[in-house]
Amino acid sequence: MKKIISLLILILGTITCMASTDNASIECFYRLTYLSDTVNQVKKEATMVLRVGKTKSLFYSEAAFERDSLLRKQYSSMAEIKAINDSIKNKYGRINASYYVLKDFHTKKLEFIDKVIQTYEYTESLPQIKWTLVNQKKKIGAYECQKATCSYAGRNYEAWFTTDIPLSDGPWKFNGLPGLILEVYDTQHHYEFTFLGIQNCSGNIYIPIDDYVKTTKNDYLHIKQRSIDDPKAFLAGLATTLGIKGNGDKLPQKRIFYATMERLR
Question: What is d(CA 127, CA 152) in angstroms, rounded to the nearest whole number?
Fold first, then answer.
């Protein structure tokens, strides 16, 4: 109880003094687990972070954020870029998620950035998710949570939120419940976000990427799905578009079978 009260005081106090800044008050850590091969039941994991401020929040991969922040600084050689990538790999292993979700609750807009060989960016209206509250509760860590369900972007989800942390936000694009979402997963368990912990934060809310290709959500989803369905053909097509010559025999064969989290319409 003392922990919850202290956290509430922190949130309310920090929000009051942050009215004109993009600084965060807290950051919540999640483990993303997703099936990268639904045929052979192969799973991948990534540590994700939700950084929450007064009117904005940012959801990102811990490893990708550190890498992109370092690469954003001035560098003078490919050797320095390689050194950064190697240091991140040694620290975190393979980066299994590289996207950013920036929610702006004031403008009701969402910015999404992801790297699929090239880096793509699109904006959309903040999703208005229709939640159904369920009279079912459980504890996650020190927090009393209630269940809610929804259908969004081609999948059915179950979420657990806590009013102990009165922030209407959650991992990925999820929002709109009367408390922070600590756990959410689709009913097929292809994509799962589980709570790891929460802590104070005074960092800025920003995406550490300046160079990207602007696109639409629909085009991005098609690009992403093509890269999953047939990596060899996708990379060959991209190389042709960019005028890059290479040995097609070295391109990867199809080896993974899964759909993007938001299903194509």
Answer: 9
Q: Which two tokens stand for residue 131?
A: 């939640």
Distance CA 49, CA 101 (A): 11
Distance CA 194, CA 14 (A): 25
Name residue, tokens 């806590």: 162
**CA-based angle 205:208:214, to the nearest 5?**
105
CA distance 265 to 250: 32
DSSP conformational letter for 179: S
Cβ neighbors of 115 (< 8 A, separation 6 or more) are 64, 98, 99
pLDDT of the residue at 30: 98
Residue 41 is predicted with a pLDDT of: 82
Question: Do residues 225 and 190 make contact, with C-beta atoms less than 8 angstroms apart?
Answer: no
Tell the burial category of 58 from Cβ atoms under 10 Å away from its Cβ (0-12, 13-18, 19+).
Answer: buried
Looking at 50-54, 72-76, 106-110, which range is the least confident one? 72-76
Of the pLDDT bands very low, low, confident and very high (cuts 50, 70, 90), residue 234 is confident
Q: Are 17 and 25 in contact (CB under 8 A)?
A: no
Which helix H or strand E contains 141, and what residues bound it?
none
Distances (CA, A) of 169 to 53, 119, 186, 241, 244: 11, 26, 17, 39, 42
Helix (H) or strand (E) holding 225: helix 217-229
